[in-house]
TrEMBL record, chain A:
Record domain ABC transmembrane type-1: where: 94-307
Domain of life: Bacteria
Name this protein carries in UniProt: Sugar ABC transporter permease
Topology within the bilayer: Multi-pass membrane protein
Protein source organism: Agromyces tardus
GO cellular component: plasma membrane
Transmembrane segments: 35-55, 93-115, 127-148, 180-203, 286-310
Subcellular location as annotated: Cell membrane
Biological process according to GO: transmembrane transport
Keyword Transcription regulation recorded: no
Keyword Methyltransferase recorded: no
From TrEMBL, chain B:
Regions crossing the membrane: 12-34, 73-98, 110-130, 142-164, 185-210, 242-264
Cited SUPFAM superfamilies: MetI-like
Domain of life, source organism: Bacteria
Domain ABC transmembrane type-1: 73-264
Keywords for this protein: Cell membrane, Membrane, Transmembrane, Transmembrane helix, Transport
Subcellular location: Cell membrane
Membrane topology qualifier: Multi-pass membrane protein
GO cellular component terms, semicolon-separated: plasma membrane
Signal sequence, start to end: none
Family classification: Belongs to the binding-protein-dependent transport system permease family.
Name of protein: Carbohydrate ABC transporter permease
InterPro entries: MetI-like, MetI-like_sf
Entry keyword annotation includes Membrane: yes
Amino acid sequence: MTVTMQESTRSITVPPDARNTPPPRRRGRKPLITFGHWWWALPAIALVIGVHYVATLTGGFFAFTNWTGLGDWDFVGLDNFVRIFQDPLLLGAVWNTLFLAFASVILTNVFGLLYALAINRMLKTRYLLRTLLFMPVVLSPLAVAYVWKFIFQFNGPLNGLLGFLGLEELQKVWLADPTWSIWAILITVVWQQTGFTMVIYLAGLASVPVEVEEAAALDGAGIWGRFWHVTVPAIRPSIAIATTLGIIQGLRIFDQILALTAGGPAGATETLATEVYKQAFSLGQFGFGSALALVLTVIILAFAILQQYVTRDRSLGKD
Amino acid sequence: MFRYTKLTAFRELLVWLVTLIGLLPLYILVVTSLKTDQEALTTSAIAPPTTVDFGAFVEVLTTTGRNSIPMSIVNSVIITAGAIFGLVLLGSIAAYVIARRTRTWSTLTYYLVLIAIILPAQLGTVPLYIGARTVGLTGNALGMILLWIGILLPLSVFLYASFFRGMTTEYEEAAVIDGATPTQTFFRVVLPLMSPATGTVAILAGLIVWNDFFNSLIFLGGSETQTLPVAMYTYVGGLVSAWNKIFAVVIISMIPILLFYMFAQKRFIQGFAGGLKG
């Protein structure tokens, strides 16, 4: 079973490696045989260029127009962006996007790491536990959000539990509360995603040799000493991957918000993703919606590039 | 040094307790879906149903009209299967020539694909929607399948290319020496060998497409063709606190994924950890 863990470590490690290394070259030498026909790549190239490059560049262009999907449009320069950063509701959406991304990353990583550490060594049922905790990850975020919507209902299980514990004063309409509704969304996301970080950390922990831990323990290192000086340095790559992937995922949270609060109450849980949907597709403001999408894209791209950098550093360090 | 002691047994017990409390929402989901309308409203969420009642499931599965759940399951299956088929076919043949050939164009194409993996999809949604609407590809399964193939092809090409790089060329050379054409070599020799990569592509793409809500909402919005998550969203929107029915829909949407997960949980966990796209 340890082999499995090794394999999942490898499947995380290989991508950054492959990104750096171009295909094995045999420059100047013609291959002995031809592999396939060159035109086999054409449908894929056409679709990738069309769906990713042309669409993204066109979207970037729309962001500087006032197009509504019908009729004429004007080039409006930076007007859309000025509007975004002067509208308190949209600025709130930017903050909510960042809050959900960072808070969900911190919580899923803390819980995921704690859980991975708890089941990592010696538990007889750790593979069963791993399978159970990873299960929410494969479920549809929308379906999971409905389960939590029930839990957060005014006469739902959460308020029921608070009443049972004699904490009636804490009971509230969670999803209609301007302060607490975003925390409800956060809990839903964290519950679903913790299994994912746990799996990344389990793969990282599998690379810590048990002998090193035993040696440290024999030398008198306590549980904290072993954690900070043996475990953390060894799983630093896993931390890098789990946090950067988590932020990129967290910035795109959409399904859960639409199911739980639809952005309410009074815009308290709007994010850039929900605003892009509302402006562009509900209100037909294609130009303005694209400007919001551009802001979101720039933020995601910044973290995606950071992720490439961090994971590349890791593979270099390993060689 | 590290032995299974009483303390370890206590730890194991504690972890199980935490896990079971953590999975309590799934328990609430199942018991509530098996309650009658009346019981779902009046009993405690964690109380099991007095009698197991499949009424909610029957009602959900016999709905008709635009948000018919059975029809949306058929649509979701068609779209997911079509997307996986296209991603496996187009992704593998493209990755094969890109990974095996050593010309400048194949390297450039590979980088084109890698950059597309990093590029966030949000900005392209509006132009893609307008383009699809113009050529009549919104509101039908074909448009959705093509969209998904386009969105996920970089991932598919990347996974296949990594796989072909690690595969020896000797089988193909032997086939060519025996007189096989390039097409025969690929479909008779390479295709059967690449099933591990196909498994990863199918699991990742299948999960993403099956669970997707955002793209289906936009590209199928208001049409007769709805996928399961969108039909669920509309159906639930029309129910006021009929939680037994809402949860019946939710469970129906989870069953196919959970069945696959039980059969291949190790592959799910590895595939997910390895190829997740931002």
